[in-house]
Design goal:
Layout (H helix, E strand, L loop, with lengths): L2 E5 L10 H10 L4 E4 L8 H6 L6 E12 L2 E8 L6 H12 L1 H14 L6 H8 L6 H10 L6 H4 L20 H10 L3 E4 L13 H9 L4 E5 L5 H14 L2 E4 L19 H10 L6 E2 L5
Parallel strand pairs: 1-2, 2-3, 5-6, 6-7
Antiparallel strand pairs: 3-4, 3-8, 4-5
Helix pairs in contact: 5-6
Length: about 280
Amino acid sequence: MRIDLHTHSTASDGTDSPADLVRKAAAAGLDVVALTDHDTTRGHAEALAALPAGLALVTGAELSCRLDGVGMHMLAYLFDPEEPALLAERELVRDDRVPRARGMVAKLNALGVPVTWEQVARIAGDGSVGRPHVATALVELGVVASVDDAFTPQWLADGGRAHMEKHETDPFEALRLIKGAGGVAVFAHPAAAKRGRTVPESVMAELAEAGLDGIEVDHMDHDPGTRARLRGLAKELGLLVTGSSDYHGSRKSCELGEFTTDPEVYGEITRRATGAFPVPGAGGA
């Protein structure tokens, strides 16, 4: 089995619609794909309607968190999307995205960059607006060569000249909410230092004690040495190890299935979940 547990669609900051994403996942030879858009489940219905035969969909979301000034992301799998407490928190985070993006546009204007809110809104379309949409605007204007080049201290990285804070959930609260909704929690790309500051390993131990299920080890932002270190840490803490592409369509260079999750780990995730279950494809539209 080939299992990719971290992808994004146009419901957040990917460039493929949810329907196109699941079709591409099947064409890429995946058996299981998780749709984990930022702070939203809005793409799930479309993905399920288009789910090809032979492909199972894991419903999920990537929750924006912050601890002691350090941004981090929590992958939540197979939770009940209508559970009131987690739903309210997702809406709170999502609603703060527009004023945050407008603030980044204002900061860029002050730096002499002629980006407009209309341009960013056009790029975001119906998705939850975020930094990748602002970064794409910078690419369009020729300010940077790629989206990744915009995530530097000069521009949009945490603490960067045009960075703006937004409401983000305390990760320990996120764990409580995910568990309360019957979901499984995995710390996304925990050592992706090129994105900015990362939390120390002591925090991962505290999260493990608080109910964290796993850490995303095999990821494009982790070099081989980092992956080996994280794998050892996961074993020490009794955490599951996942691997995934963090696919964003054409917005990032990674491909579907670039990294994958062991089938035994996937089986354990599905056993732990009580809020929802993977949906097998029946040949969607």
